[in-house]
Write a structure and sequence with these properties.
The chain has 189 residues and is α/β, with parallel strands linked by helices. Helix content is 39%, strand content 21%. The strands form two sheets. Strands 2, 3, 4, 5, 6, 7 and 8 form a seven-stranded parallel β-sheet that branches. Helix 5 packs parallel to helix 6. The two termini are 19 Å apart.
């Protein structure tokens, strides 16, 4: 771990990883997800051990009567439970249900981050060229510091993902790194 990130004001966001993978782009996405899950599981574990808030921000897939427990149970009962189990929320995890690409768009996440006194978010999950990119832009517009571990985000189209990471770095001032380079240091956020 090359650079430590202090815990005061930091949160790890896990975007759209509670998923059944029965959607149109799943075939293109799954190889990337399989590479990301072990890296993300290790990153989540390190964040939890350092008492960093882990916040799952997940699409509701148009199921307006669903809640996070139902989304998790459905994903764990699906064909790709092996991709969910290593990164599943624990009892300390926070959960925000979203309906659009950005984790900030019409969700309580801005209020939650304010209540936790978070000024720096680590964005992980899927899809780099969509939800992660739009969330990074919204975080930037809210004057939050953004770090994106490029090996802890999955993509559908690798060339678009590379462009998205470059845009996050150049246009939004995001720190693009690897999960291993993120060193969470003790204390609570």
């Amino acid at each position: 771990m090359d650079e430590a990130i202090g815990t005061t004001g930091l949160a790890l966001l896990v975007i759209d990883m509670i998923n059944t993978y029965d959607h149109e782009d799943a075939g293109l996405l799954l190889p990337s997800i399989r590479r990301v899950v072990p890296v993300l599981a290790e990153l989540i574990g390190r964040a939890r051990r350092a008492d960093i808030p882990v916040i799952y921000a997940n699409d509701n897939f148009g199921l307006w009567r669903s809640h996070h427990g139902e989304l998790l149970a459905t994903a764990l009962a699906g064909l790709h439970a092996d991709l969910i189990e290593p990164i599943r929320p624990d009892d300390e995890s926070l959960f925000v249900v979203k309906a659009r690409h950005s984790v900030f768009y019409e969700t309580p996440l801005p209020y939650l981050l304010q209540q936790l006194d978070v000024g720096h978010v680590v964005l992980s999950g899927q899809v780099t060229e969509q939800c992660v990119l739009y969330s990074a832009l919204d975080a930037h517009m809210r004057h939050l510091d953004v770090t994106v571990p490029k090996d802890a985000v999955a993509s559908i189209h690798p060339q678009l993902a590379s462009a998205a990471l470059e845009m996050m770095e150049r246009n939004m001032g995001a720190r693009i790194t690897t999960a291993r380079e993120i060193g969470f240091v003790g204390g609570k956020a």
